[in-house]
């Protein structure tokens, strides 16, 4: 009967990470004490970034995650096991959590936005308030064309030449007598 012993190694140590801003790449490195063998190909690593588990090829002790969100926080854990080349092994416990980020502030200050908020927005709100307060403001700014007075309306509505503008108008008849007419009689 052949027994294979499974070796459980301690988790990797010294997890470090760097960010390349111009490429948005997150580079993760770690070290592991060579308890069993100094040959790198004897070790197989597995990496967990947030909830994503990434299996790595044998002997690789670094990883580059491309196109990372610089405003996000990343939690990184690593574990190791021996490959079948050197001996069979089981996965070690996960290493302590290494947190990185955010590398950029999600809420950066934009001077144009501040200018709009400080200057333009209050003026816009003041204009709306004035329009609501003074509903007659458009009539004051653009008054309607005045209509003719009552007297002018009456003058324009009547068709005959003589118009009575008021009830106070009194006609007087005067008889004119010429002196020449009296002599002939």
Give the total of beta strands: 9
Q: Average pLDDT value?
A: 78
Estimated share of beta-strand residues: 15-25%
Distance between the termini: 179 Å
- Biggest sheet: strands, sense, closure? 4 strands, antiparallel
Radius of gyration (Å):
50 Å
Backbone shape = rod-shaped
Residue windows where pLDDT falls under 50 for at least 5 positions: none
Structural class: alpha+beta
SSE arrangement, N to C: EEEEEEEEEHHHH
> How many DSSP H or I helices?
4
Spatial ordering of strands, largest sheet:
5-4-7-9
* Helix-residue proportion: 10-25%
How would you characterize this protein structure?
- This protein has 185 residues and is of the alpha+beta class.
- It has helices at residues 111-133, 137-141, 150-157, 179-184; strands at residues 7-8, 13-20, 25-31, 43-49, 52-55, 62-65, 74-82, 89-90, 98-100.
- A hairpin with a 4-residue loop joins strand 2 and strand 3 (25-31).
In short:
By secondary structure, the protein is an alpha+beta fold. The chain is built from 4 helices and 9 strands.
What topology emerges from the helices and strands here?
Blueprint lengths: L6 E2 L4 E8 L4 E7 L11 E7 L2 E4 L6 E4 L8 E9 L6 E2 L7 E3 L10 H23 L3 H5 L8 H8 L21 H6 L1
Parallel strand pairs: 1-8
Antiparallel strand pairs: 2-3, 3-6, 4-5, 4-7, 7-9
């Amino acid at each position: 009967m052949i027994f294979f012993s499974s070796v459980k190694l301690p988790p990797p140590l010294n997890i470090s990470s760097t960010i390349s801003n111009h490429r948005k790449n997150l580079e993760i490195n770690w070290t592991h004490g060579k308890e069993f063998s100094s040959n790198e190909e004897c070790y197989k690593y597995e990496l967990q970034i947030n909830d994503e588990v990434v299996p790595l090829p044998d002997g690789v002790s670094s990883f580059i995650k491309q196109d990372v969100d610089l405003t996000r926080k990343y939690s990184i854990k690593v574990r190791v096991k021996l490959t079948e080349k050197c001996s069979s092994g089981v996965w070690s416990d996960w290493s302590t959590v290494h947190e990185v980020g955010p590398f950029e502030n999600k809420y950066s200050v934009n001077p144009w936005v501040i200018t709009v908020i400080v200057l333009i927005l209050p003026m816009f709100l003041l204009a709306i308030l004035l329009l609501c307060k003074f509903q007659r403001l458009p009539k004051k700014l653009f008054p309607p064309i005045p209509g003719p007075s009552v007297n002018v309306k009456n003058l324009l509505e009547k068709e005959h030449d003589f118009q009575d503008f008021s009830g106070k108008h009194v006609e007087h008849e005067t008889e004119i007598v010429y002196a020449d007419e009296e002599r002939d009689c």
